[in-house]
Design brief:
The chain is of the alpha/beta class and about 160 residues long. Helices cover about 40% and strands about 20% of the residues. It has a single domain, classed as HUPs (Rossmann fold), CATH 3.40.50.620. The protein has a 5-stranded parallel β-sheet with strand order 3-2-1-4-5, sandwiched between helices. Helix 2 links the parallel strand 2 and strand 3. It is globular and about 45 Å long. The structure holds adenosine-5'-diphosphate. Adenosine-5'-diphosphate (ADP) binds next to helix 1 and strand 4.
């Protein structure tokens, strides 16, 4: 059985993330989506909220589970027996970052490989940070995030009760 780990901040989960998770779930026997507790960026949602939103967003993916973590990602991969780490790629700048990170991770554990899936065209410009910016200004989000995430964003910015 080949397990894959899909780690990220997911602040919040977008349809771009769900698309990657769904496609990865078709390639591997099991995927673990791991929400990183303390990424080096300012967060809008708590870890618990990010995990809950992700759980709802991928409830239809039968071989996916969602957890949170606060260790080195490679340590988590080892702990859960995942041989593969999944990442998503949009534009060129994603590549530079993911390339560096995958080389670093391979240094830390040569047995664990990174598999990058290209974004689907409709999600090429979808990022959690752009979504938050648009949400703040009251933009329509349903095309880019699941309904429950759009609602959570509206509540966060005081645009809905
Ligand atoms: P990070 O883990 O770097 O904090 P995110 O949580 O936003 O970043 O994303 C987790 C992973 O999903 C990253 O590999 C990122 O490149 C990828 N990703 C984010 N948005 C999309 C998208 N719209 N399409 C494909 N992959 C994406």
């Amino acid at each position: 059985m080949t397990s894959a780990l899909y780690p990220g901040s997911f602040d919040p989960v977008t349809k771009g993330h769900v698309d990657i998770a769904q496609r990865a779930a078709g390639l591997f026997d099991k995927i673990t989506i791991a929400v990183y507790d303390a990424p080096p960026k300012q967060l809008l949602f708590t870890t618990e909220q990010r995990v809950d939103m992700m759980k709802k967003a991928v409830a239809h993916i039968k071989n996916a589970e969602v957890i949170s973590y606060s260790t080195l990602t490679i340590e988590l991969a080892r702990k859960i027996g995942a041989k593969v780490m999944i990442r998503g790629l949009r534009m060129g700048s994603d590549f530079d970052y993911e390339f560096e990170m995958s080389l670093m991770n391979r240094k830390l554990d040569p047995e664990i490989d990174t598999v990058c899936l290209m974004t689907s065209q409709e999600y090429e410009f979808v990022s959690s940070s752009l979504i938050k910016e648009a949400a703040k200004l009251g933009g329509a989000l349903n095309e880019f995030v699941p309904e429950h995430v759009a609602y959570a964003l509206r509540v966060k910015y005081g645009l809905d009760k």
